[in-house]
Amino acid sequence: MENQLKSEVQQERPPRVVIFPLPAQGHVNSMLKLAELLSLAGINVTFLNTDHLHNLLLRHADVETQFAAYPGFEFKTISDGLPDDHSRSTDSVMEVLNSMNVTTKPVLKEMLVSGVLSNSVTCIIVDGAFTGFATDLAIELDIPIIHFRTVSACCIWNHFCVDRIIEAGGLPIRGKEDMDREITSVPGMECFLRCRDLPSFIQVSDLSDPKLDQIARTTNQSCRANGLILNTFEDLEGPILFHIRTLCPKTYAIGPLHAHLKLKLANNKTDSKRPVSSTSILFEVDTNCLNWLDSQPPKSVIYVSFGSITTLTRNALMEFWHGLVNSNKRFLWVLRPDMVAEDTEVPAELMAATRERGYMVGWAPQEEVLGHHAVGGFLTHSGWNSTLESIVAGVPMICWPYFADQPINSRYVGEVWKLGIDMKDVCDRKIVEKMINDLMVERREEFERSTVEMARLATESVSLGGSSYRNFDQLVDYIRQTGR
Ligand code: UDP
Fold it and tell me: Which Pfam families does the protein's record reference (predicted)?
C-alpha cells in the first residue's frame, strides 16, 4: 500500500533537472544554453554553480533577469572548498577540481538528500569533464545522470582511444621531430591523424604522465551515465559519433547549441525579443567594434580572436601583428587585457598601420561579429565554441590551436571539413601574411563553397525535423520519463 502510494506521488512529479557545470567560462556558457533550451521545452531546471563562479556571472551578466522568464528555473550555489581570496586562475584548474572532489561531493549529497536542491530532482546533467564524483553519487542515490561534454566529438573519441593508441605504439611522443608521425590506430581517423593533431592532454612524452590516466578515467565515466550530450551535429561529426555510440549508445548530438537556442527563442512567441548572445563571465563586452565593422566593405575584414584562455608571448604577438599589417587586409583583433604577460613596446609604424585599417578590442560580441557582412575570415585558436560559431556564420578559418581539443579541431577544419587552413605550431609573420591572403583572396572561392554548404547543414540540423532538433526531442522525452 505504502509502495503504491509512493509510486502514485512519484508519478505526479514534474521532471526537474540539476545542471552542474565545470566552473569555467566556456563550460558554464554552453551549459546555460542547454539550460535555456530545456526550460523552453518546459523542463524545470536547477542550475548549480560554485559560489565563486556565480558571483562572477552576476557581476557581468544579467542572467537572473534572463532566466526569470522561466518559472521552473532556479539558480543554486555550492562551495568549491577553496578560500574566497583564492585566484582560481586557469593554472589552478586541477587544484579547484581536487578541492571539489573532496569538499563538494558530500555537500552535493546532503543537498540532494535533504531536499535543499528541491526534493523533486529527477535527473542530473553534469559536465563530464570533471564530475566522476557526481556520477558515483547519482548511481548511489538512484537518480538518472547524463554527461555533457563541451568539446568536439573528435576530441572525445581520441580520449576514448588512449589505450588503443598506446597499444599500437602511438604514444609516447619522442620530441618535436616526432610530431609529424602518423597515428593510425584511432578508428575513423586512420588517414590523417598525426601526433601534433592529438588533443594536447594526451600529447605526452612519458606514459607515466598522470594526465593520461586522468583523461582515460574521466572519459570512461561517460559510459556509466544514462546518456551523453554533445554540442555538435550529425552532418559535421557523424562518422565519429558512430564510433562514440559503440561505447555510449545514448549519445545526443544537439548542436550547434547557440544556433539551436537562437532558433527556438525566435519561434517562442512569449519571449522572442530577448537579445541572444554569449554570456560573458570574465570580460566586459565592447560593442563599439560593430559600428566600425558597419563602415567596412563586405567580407573585407579578418577577425582575430584566441578565446578566453590563450596567452601570447611577446614574440608571438609581434609575429601576428606584423603578419596582419603586412597582409594589407583590414582586421578586428581581440586582445584581452590579460593576454600578453610581458611588457611590449609596439613600433610606431605598426600602430600607424593599425589605426589605418585595424581595430583592437578587449572582448568582442563574437557571434554578432562573425555574423557581420564585413567579416570574411577568422584567425582563431580553434576553441570548440569559436569553431561552431564560425561554421554557423559561414566564415572560413585560419587555425592556430593553443591546447586541449584545439589541435584536433584545427586538423578537422583543414583536412576533413575543408573549412580553412591549419597553421598549427607555426607563428611566423610571413606565414601569417600568406595564409591571410590565401584565405581572403587566392582560395576564397574554394572556401566559400565549403563554408556556405556547412553553414546550411548546421542551420538545417537545428531546424524543425533536423538531426539536432530530433536528438533534442529524444533527450527531452528521456528527461520527462525520469519524472514518472
Ligand atoms: N568570445 C566572445 N568574445 C571575444 C572572444 C570570445 O564572446 O572577444 C566567446 C566566443 O564567442 C566563444 C567563447 O568566447 O563562445 C570562447 O569559447 P571557445 O570554446 O572558442 O574557446 P575558450 O575560450 O574556451 O578557449
Answer: Glyco_transf_N, UDPGT
The closest-lying atom of ligand 1 relative to the alpha carbon of residue 383 is: 20
Q: Separation of 381 CA from ligand 1 center, angstroms?
A: 10
Ligand 1 nearest atom to the CA of residue 310, by list position = 25
Contacts of 204 (CB under 8 A, 6+ apart): 171, 172, 173, 211, 212
Q: CA 412 to CA 312: how far, in whole Å? A: 24
**Interface predicted TM-score (ipTM):** 1.00
- Contacts with 81 (C-beta within 8 Å, 6 or more apart), sequence order: 99, 100, 102, 103, 104
- CA angle, 181 as apex, 194 and 380 as ends, to 5°? 35
Residue 277 Cα: closest atom of ligand 1: 7
Specify the residue with its C-alpha closest to ligand 1, atom 11: 366
Is the peptide bond prior to 239 cis by the omega test (within 30 degrees of 0)? no
Q: What is the largest CA-CA distance in the chain?
A: 84
User: What tens digit of pLDDT does each residue of 458-478 get?
Assistant: 999 999 999 999 999 999 999
Ligand 1: lining residues by beta carbon, under 6 Å: 26, 29, 278, 280, 305, 307-309, 334, 363-364, 366-367, 383-386, 389
**Measured in angstroms, how far is the CA atom of residue 435 from the centroid of ligand 1?**
22
Residue 24 reports pLDDT greater than 90: no
Confirm if 424 and 318 have CB atoms less than 8 A apart.
no
Confidence band (pLDDT; 50, 70, 90) for 269? low
pLDDT at site 7:
47
Among 54, 80, 127, 147, the one annotated catalytic? 127
Active site residue 27: yes
This prediction has a pTM of 0.94
Please report which confidence band the pLDDT of residue 65 belongs to, taking 50, 70 and 90 as the band edges. confident
Residues composing the chain: 484
Q: Does 78 score more than 60 pLDDT?
A: yes
